Amino acid sequence: MEEYKVVGKSCSRRDALSLVMGCAKFTDDLNLPGMVYGKILRSPHAHARVASIDKTEAEKVDGVLGILLPEDVPDVLFNCGSSPPYPAYVKDERILTAKPLYAGDRIAAVAALTPKACEEALAKMAVRYEVLPAVFDVRDAMKEDAPLIHPELFKSNVFKKTEMKQGDVERGFQESDYIFEDEFHIPSVQHVAMEPVSCICDYSREGKLTVWANSQVLFHDRRILAEILNMRENDVRIIKPFMGGGFGQRQQLHNQPVGALLSKLVGRPVKIINTREEEMYASCVRMSCICRLKFGVSQDGRILAYHVKVYGNSGAYCTHTPIVLGSMSKKYQYHAPHYHFEAFSVYTNAPVAGAMRGYGNPQLTLCREIMMDKMARKLGIDPIKFRLMNHVEVGENFPGVPFTVRSCAIRECVKRGEEIRQEIDHKEVFLPKDSNTVESWGVAFGCHASGTTDNEGMSSSAVLVHDDGTMTLLTGTSDMGQGSETAFSQILAEEMGVELKDISVTAADTSCTPYEQGSFASSQAYVGGNAVYNAAVDAKDKICSVLAKYYGIEPEKISHKKGVFTVKAPEGDIFLSLKECMAKIAFGKEGTAIIGSACYKADRSPAPFHVCWAKVAVDNTSGVITLRHFIQVADVGTAINPDIVKGQLHGGTAQGIGLALMEQIEIDKTANKPSTSDLLHYKVPTSLDMPEIHVDIVKNSYEPTGPFGAKSVGELSTVAVAPAIVNAVSNATGENSNFPTPLAKVFLLGGNREDFFY
Amino acid sequence: MGDGRIRIKFELNGSERQIDVDLSDSLLDVLRDDLGLTGTKRGCDRGLCGACTVIMNGKAVNSCQIPAMRANGKNILTIEGLAVDGKPHPLQEAFVDEGAVQCGFCTPGMIMSAKALLDQNPDPSDEEIKVALSGNICRCTGYVNIEKAVRKAADDIKSLDL
Fold first, then answer.
1. Which one of B32, B96, B142 has the shortest CB-CB distance to A17?
2. DSSP conformational letter for A246
3. pLDDT per residue as tens digits for the range A495-525
4. Taking 90 as the threshold, does the pLDDT of residue A746 lie above it?
5. Is the separation of the CB atoms in A307 and A169 below 8 Å?
6. CB within 8 Å: A20 and B88
7. Cα angle: B79, vertex B97, B148; to 5 degrees
8. pLDDT single digits (tens) A615-670
9. What is the CATH number of domain A285-391+402-452+604-756?
10. What is the CATH number of domain A18-132+197-273?
11. Residue A755: what are its φ and ψ, rounded to 5°?
């Protein structure tokens, strides 16, 4: 393999110093001249009709500048989920509504001189609600007599079926020696990005709108905003300042439409920052779901048939749900000649489901990997061996996926992880068998995608090469902490043969960075990286052709390698650095500017893979689970920046631990709304909750279609974390039970966790 | 609006400051909104996430939970006050070097908690580091590199003192 100068090397995030010094500006750190504040009146009821609203007293509050009611805003239906405009994205929500469908729905909005005046005004809004019956559980929502959530759009709360078929699954079951079936209830969790959803909207007198927001998907936000506000896209400018995490929560519009209309109303820039409580109940959550899995397996342990049925709880609105469910079907990394995937999107009055790291994959992988362990146990086969003997290899396809796997180092992941596990076992003696605390390991496999699995990934980049040989990369993508701007700089530096310091980045501003699909679906390293690579190639081609003109020779006589341009001139070879080339190009008599640009449209989405091991200790008396070690080894192809990749693996591990052991959105059945609406009642892992974490990246994986061989990592890192933990607990307790039952017994809930499922 | 205003005096990042604050203002409100020190972040406003951590009279506190009046006569250190002559504090350098920063929103609060720890305990154990940081939520890093950075900074500070 070729030795790279910049790619494959670790370097700090390019903007880390600003962040540690406290001078990086996040949206809430920006203050525009004349800026005021906005706040949204949210429904306290999960399902209701607004009988009347009186804003008289609210308007009298000192500092209040304007109030918007449902009748004051355009009555358009839209889908806030910012993705390409697929028909599956049902347009079912309003900017402000008089018929709230979940506790948190937007009823009215106020703009005032201070946040305190906003709060006081909201408290003085006199709203009379006619409360309607609400449902939170998909099973209740599917009953004949269930209240319809969107009667004007659908005559059932099941609003979409997503299906994929390969072979004949019933025949597959008939041919199988063993049938394994199970049902799992996966609860909802929240992203808890540390920076709350934030925006500043400035609607100018000329009818142009500028939005500063922590968004992952600027261009889709722009399209949807322009559509619902009846504007042209070039009159809407969206800028992403520093962004404090995303994890999918910001793959949709939040308060921007309200902010834009408030700004238009009061003629001043309006800042809206979610409170943490609004984040928890009124932004979006990871979709909860009921999953039924059925496997048909031969006597010698080959999976012959796999049938999945998923009921996804979309909450009050569609947003991403049908696509989240559909993408679940494409992450099945084992063989199954007969495969049938069915998923149902179900409306309820629960908090709205959105995109979250893994986009459905962690939920179904959790169920599947628990079953893989159970099947291996029943068949008397080692769980790792059972997985490997069924695993898709290079040259084969995932069931139901049209493109072939070109890189897969799952066996190397197993080998490396087992080495780490043995080192740990060598150092730490297991507790004696008669001890009250039982220790055990558990394992799980996972994979993800590099960009959307429907081949819709698209990114574009431009490289402005300056006359001193330095350059500026223009990219529309949002770096939300994952380090994409740093990785892009490395790809560009490598291809142009320059140093990292020669590259600056202008990113995520719809007025000056080229169109692309946004930071989601783990698409940055692969889709975005390919666009950057192609733009670099284009810049070099342009430099060569201008140099050819300069020297009066054919462009083919100029070549470039590792920062040196070689000109095969009649008088002999001339070697030029990029700086020397640019001096000739910029200042020569035929002076010109070099702008390399390229678009990358993906025709595939290569899967990265990982294997996870958890070592737990379970106290037999109290049932308390202690997570001692967690190992995660990943195949991400070439790691553009190994330290950044490892950072992703660390963070994904922490979020998976939260899903398995700590986090769950709970609905208070009396109040009919979430009780986990702050960080006191909703626990995310802190430093004290973390086990010893061991991560590694396998070295001998190369994705031939990726930039310098790279695949993705962001979402992968959390996919198989939870099942490894659940499997370890099952191995320790010997229980043959489903998630989250084994955990329910020992955690806060003290009963059947299903009671809390909605 | 508030119930009235009161003048407070305190030492902020080494300089005496005097400012009129609303009785209902938190220290975080005053730092961010009145003094423009936006390095201190507002993550939950309930004292549960640690993003707003500053050091008050040597102790790490959630500034969102401190009534501004209580800062009167106190010594307050924020992330903006850590650098000496523009040179980053060893903790800030270690956070960069160890890859302890992803989105960076929790970082200022995390660094202030770590600073309070190292000021009192220059050679903390791994467990003491975990405990000191346990009031600061980070959703990106899994805390691994943050703990490494605090360890490294402790070593760096010791070697500077020698």
1. B96
2. -
3. 999 999 999 999 999 999 999 999 999 999 9
4. no
5. yes
6. yes
7. 85
8. 999 887 777 889 999 999 999 999 999 999 999 999 999 999 999 999 999 999 88
9. 3.30.365.10
10. 3.90.1170.50
11. -55, -25
Task: Give the closest-approach CA distance of B3 to chain A in angstroms.
Answer: 12
Residue ranges of domains in chain B = 5-81, 90-161
State the count of interchain CB pairs (< 8 A) between A and B. Answer: 181
For residue B112, what is the nearest residue in chain A, using CA coordinates?
Answer: A20
Query: Is A271 part of the contact surface with chain B (CB cutoff 8 Å)?
Result: no
CA–CA gap between residue A362 and residue A327 (Å, rounded):
11
Candidate CATH numbers 3.10.450.50, 1.20.1050.10, 3.40.600.10, 1.10.150.120; the one for domain B90-161: 1.10.150.120
Q: Is A123 on the interface with B (CB under 8 A)?
A: no
Closest CB to A28 among B42, B92, B129? B42
Mutate one of A194, A240, A681, A696 to test the B interface: name it (highest B CB count within 10 A). Answer: A194
Q: In what order do the strands lie in the sheet with A458-465?
A: A503-507, A471-475, A458-465, A594-601
Does position A87 have pLDDT exceeding 80, yes or no?
Answer: yes
CATH of region A457-601, choose from 3.40.50.2300, 3.40.50.1580, 3.30.365.10, 3.40.50.300: 3.30.365.10
A residues 190-219 lying closer than 8 A (beta carbon) to B: 191-196
Closest residue to B103, CB basis, from A244, A275, A654: A244
Phi and psi based region of residue A270 (left: phi greater than 0; alpha: psi -120 to 50; beta: remaining): beta
Residues of chain A neighbouring B138 (CB-CB closer than 8 A):
194
Give yes or no for residue A262 having a pLDDT over 90. yes
CATH of B5-81, one of 3.40.50.80, 3.10.20.30, 3.30.420.40, 3.40.50.150: 3.10.20.30
Stretch A133-139: mean pLDDT, rounded?
97
| Number of alpha carbons in the 13 Å side-chain half-sphere of residue A478 | 33
Domain with CATH 3.90.1170.50 in chain A: 18-132+197-273
Percent composition of chain A: helix, strand, coil (DSSP 3-state, to 5): 30, 25, 45
The answer, for A114 touching chain B at a CB cutoff of 8 Å, is yes
pLDDT band at residue A755 under the 50/70/90 scheme: very low
pLDDT at A742 over 80: no
The answer to whether A24 contacts B104, with C-beta atoms less than 8 Å apart, is yes
| pLDDT at A42 > cutoff 50 | yes
- Cα–Cα distance measured from residue A487 to residue A498, given in angstroms and rounded to the nearest whole number: 14
Q: Does residue A191 register a pLDDT over 90? A: yes
Which chain B residue is nearest to residue A680, measuring alpha carbons? B48
Q: What is the pLDDT of residues A604-625, one digit of tens each?
A: 999 999 999 999 998 877 778 8
Confidence of residue A673 (pLDDT cuts 50, 70, 90): confident
Subunit contact B88:A678, Cβ cutoff 8 A: no
Kindly report the CA angle at A393 between A392 and A397, in degrees rounded to 5? 60
Strand partners, A595: A464
* pLDDT-derived band at B3, boundaries 50, 70, 90: low
Task: Using the Cα atoms of residue A135, residue A139, residue A144 and residue A150 in order, give the sign of their dihedral.
Answer: positive
Rg (CA), chain A: 27
From B76's Cα to the closest Cα of chain A, the distance in A is 16
* Residue B81 structure tokens: 């006050």
Question: Does the structure's ipTM exceed the value 0.95?
Answer: yes
- Strand-pairing partners, residue A26, are A242
Secondary structure (3-state) at A530: helix
Q: Where in chain A is CATH 3.30.365.10? A: 285-391+402-452+604-756, 457-601
Query: Given B42, B49, B88, which is nearest A21 (Cβ)?
Result: B88
Which residue in chain B is spatially nearest to A17 when comparing CA positions? B96
